[in-house]
User: What shape does this take?
Amino acid sequence: MRRNGNPAVLIGRDGALEHLDRYLTAPDAVVTVTGPGGIGKSALVRTAVARASHLADHHVVVDLAGVTEGGAVRDAVL
Assistant: This one.
């Protein structure tokens, strides 16, 4: 989602969305999306979660962009 609440336009990400759709249908799924900054990971995840109606009340997106120490991941997630 863009900061104004409107969905981001994803170009050329159909394959990645299909992969996320499959992963997000698994029971108790924990999905991690990684990659260089600025390539649209957040927009991709938010779009996939918005498309997955079964996740309407059961999803958590944790932005780890500001986490620089491995030990801090646990605190960011919890």
Remarks:
- Helices lie at 14-24, 41-51, 72-77.
- The mean pLDDT is 80.
- The CA atoms of residues 64 and 72 lie 9 Å apart.
